[in-house]
Amino acid sequence: MAEQVLFSGTVGVSYGQVYLAGEEPPGMDESFAGQVNGLCGAAVPGSLFLVTGIKEGSVPMTVELHPSEPPLSDAWEEIVEVSFANPSPRPELQEWGGEGNHPFRLEPGSYRIRYCARMMDEAWDVESNYDDDLIDAYLLQFWPSPAEPDRIIRQTSRCAAYWHQANRQAEPSPEQAATETAQLADAEEEWLLRVFQGRVPNQRLRAVALAGYSHSLNDIDMDLTFALAEADDGVHRAVAAWAALRALEIARLTELPELAPSVAAIRQGGRAVAPFDGTGYWYGALTSPIPETPVPPLSPVPAAHTPDGEVPEDHTQIRETAAIYALLATGEADSLAAALSAATSAAEAFGGDLYLQFLSDLRQAFPEPGSRR
């Protein structure tokens, strides 16, 4: 039997999940029961739970059948293996919520599966790629084999390390645990150096960055990011409230009845109130008609957005949406995360070259955000 490509195409992703199943997709907890890897759950017979770096969007995925174990390829950054008893001659790659099925032919039997991924961190950081270029990519390799325990072959990214730990329900060997810890530390340091362009963040900014909050403002104004990292919680909350209010003002949403309690709160330097504090489902609470005002992307394009000198495609922002996200950011539990996120969303609400004036006004309102008062 020669190598066969059973499927090659683009698969829709929601919540960072894709499934292989004959019927209903499996749940996450039961899929990873007893496993050490957290990327490919195979504990539910006849099903696979596949984790991706991108949370919402699409990924290219290839499924191959081999006559025997194929050699490892350096083209893939993350590799895990599981065993799989295929009960159906026509399994399907399934998208979340039944939004799309991608069937292929595979004889019933016992298989070993190698799940390979690349660029998971890059996709994890941007979260979605609707209407954008594809980022992360995946490969499933099948070959006939008796069942054996799952294992992690290669791990290089923060995203993979997170999911290996989050989904793990079996204890790794001491050697595997030590290797994962070292790999995660190395990956984090490499990522921080890249994001901050060689500058060294303090511990507060480091923690917030690794949690995914600082990246966007860092691209827009790195000096402001570092200044805010030196400020105290009170300054953070004041900056978040100030930025959110400016965003709501330019979007003309301050008089919206549903937002009135939150607007009153942030006028006092506080946080938005539920459901606009980021803790609940807020979209359904907006019953008043809200316009959708398109604003151009930030211009001039921040240098960090064009590392190769290329201007990205024109992605129009909706001012009102960005303003509401600035409001939601005030509810972040971490005050630095609140300030960074609110300032970023507010800059996007201004859009075009107006965001430069917004940043200038922010610096005038908070001339020394890193000073201890």
For the biggest sheet, the summary is: 6 strands, mixed
Radius of gyration: 23 Å
Q: State the separation between the terminal residues, measured CA to CA.
A: 73 Å
Summarize model confidence as the mean pLDDT. 86
CATH homolog superfamily of the largest domain: Competence, DNA-entry nuclease inhibitor, ComJ
Portion of residues within helices: 25-40%
Structural class category: alpha+beta
Pick out the low-confidence regions: 304-314
Discrete helix count: 12
Q: What is the element string, with H for helices and E for strands?
A: EEHEEEEEEEHEEHHHHHHHEEHHH
Explain how this protein is built:
This protein has helices at 28-31, 120-126, 158-167, 174-195, 203-210, 215-220, 222-229, 233-250, 260-267, 319-329, 335-350, 354-365, and strands at 4-14, 17-21, 40-41, 48-51, 56-65, 78-86, 92-94, 101-103, 109-118, 137-144, 151-154, 294-295, 317-318. By secondary structure, it is an alpha+beta fold. It has 2 domains: 4-186, Substrate Binding Domain Of DNAk, Chain A, domain 1; 216-365, no CATH class. A 6-stranded mixed beta sheet has the order 1-5-10-9-6-11, with no helix packed on it. It starts with a strand and ends in an 8-residue tail after the last helix. The model is unreliable at 304-314 (pLDDT under 50).
